[in-house]
Design goal:
Elements (H helix, E strand, L loop, with lengths): L9 H25 L5 H13 L3 H9 L2 H9 L1 H20 L11 H21 L7 H12 L3 H16 L5 H21 L8
Subcellular location: Cell membrane
Protein name: YitT family protein
Membrane topology: Multi-pass membrane protein
């Protein structure tokens, strides 16, 4: 017997977005503590932050602004409102958490895996509550709709360009550990983000 799907309540969404943003913010703080890089709009914001010395939180918030219009057209106002809330919350948390959450010695391998797990768990929560933390996926879907070129390839090309740029700002070993974190993150999403398994 098939279990009927149920919609999340407003409280469910608020809890899911708060949890997802918090987990992702801890992942970002650990990532910047280790000097790592990552992909998507978060990765772009981190590289800008490294290059300029500007805080990640404000940069991440501004970098995402152009994508909300595309999100509105592709997914509707509900998605945009939830994504705006998630991005704003993560930007605030990353700016205000450091005095209350500090890291000591973290081995890069352990850090890379933990970053991937923390951020992956956060993104899963956001996805399941109709939200996101970045606009590159939206651009990918637009290109896919217009040309047939797969959205996944668009994201992969964008991330490859970011990691190539990272070699000018970080040493190759650090970029390599960062890549491990990105693999863990993407595997976490790929294995667990399945609409045919998640029923609400």
């Amino acid at each position: 017997m098939e279990i009927p799907k149920q919609k999340h309540s407003l409280i469910d969404d608020a809890q899911g977005i708060a949890f997802g943003s918090f987990m992702a913010s801890v992942g970002v703080l650990l990532l910047t503590h280790l000097g790592f890089v990552t992909g998507q709009t978060a990765g772009l914001a981190i590289l800008i932050s490294y290059a300029t010395g500007w805080g990640f939180g404000p940069v991440f918030f501004v970098v995402n602004l152009p994508f909300y219009w595309l999100g509105w057209r592709r997914f509707g106002p509900g998605f945009v409102a939830k994504s705006f809330a998630a991005v704003a919350l993560l930007s605030l948390l990353v700016s205000f958490l450091p005095p209350y959450l500090q890291f000591g010695t973290v081995h890069p391998a352990v850090g890379a895996v933990l970053i991937g797990c923390l951020t992956g768990a956060g993104l899963l929560a956001l996805f399941r509550h109709g939200s996101s933390l970045g606009g590159v996926g939206i651009v990918g879907l637009y290109i896919q709709d217009a040309t047939g070129f797969r959205a996944g390839w668009v994201q992969l090309i964008f991330d490859a360009a970011l990691f190539a740029l990272a070699f000018f700002l970080r040493d190759p070993v650090t970029v390599g550990w960062s890549f491990l974190g990105a693999i863990v993150l993407n595997l976490t999403i790929a294995v667990n983000h399945r609409r045919d398994r998640y029923i609400v």
